[in-house]
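Box S2. Input/output pair 1.
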Amino acid sequence: EQRLLLEALISVDMATEVLTKVPESQVPVLTRLLDPNKFLNVLNECPEDHASYLLFQFDEIEREVLLSQLPTGRSRRLNQLLSYPEDSAGRMMDTQPFSIPELLTS
């Protein structure tokens, strides 16, 4: 029943939102109910700060296995986020640069 719910959430792109709201101890339990490729897709498609949060809920060995299955660039950026202390700005930051064209500033 839980697996079917998670599968439905993935199909409507809500899995990340739900998985970041459940108790931390439940994240590994719930994600193990999913097809591993679907969870990897969630990790690959969601914002990096959310992916690092989800990965942090796993022990180090499981986390390394998951990271090794992601594209190299994505894995490297997530490893960088995971290297910062928990609850630090570095762990929660958005790694995508933001800029405004000079002509739009006053």
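Box S3. Input/output pair 2.
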Amino acid sequence: ADAQTAEPARMWAAQTGPASIVLSWQAVAGATGYSLYCAAGEEEPRLIGKPAANATQWNLGVKPAMIGVEQHCALETRTAGGISPARRAKGTIVPPPITSPTLFPL
């Protein structure tokens, strides 16, 4: 991707409660918005939200079917110059049963 369609430099996730994972990323200069995709296991990524240009995080609700299943999440960045490469996974999240908050590096 060129500078006009750059992806976020870093993306990470933290499970902040029994039913909540917060996805965070570094903002991209010139972004007009983002598209957030997630997939479980080997599924095709699906659009789960369109965070605004000034957003740097998204709350991903954890459903019982997600516990112990790899979740792959990725962002597309929208700018005046176009859209970054689509749906490239930045990492994997495997929500465990929660006893305390867990940090997932992506």
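Caption for Box S3: Residues 91 and 106 are 4 Å apart (CA to CA). Strands lie at 11-17, 20-25, 31-40, 46-49, 57-61, 71-79, 82-83, 91-93, 102-105.
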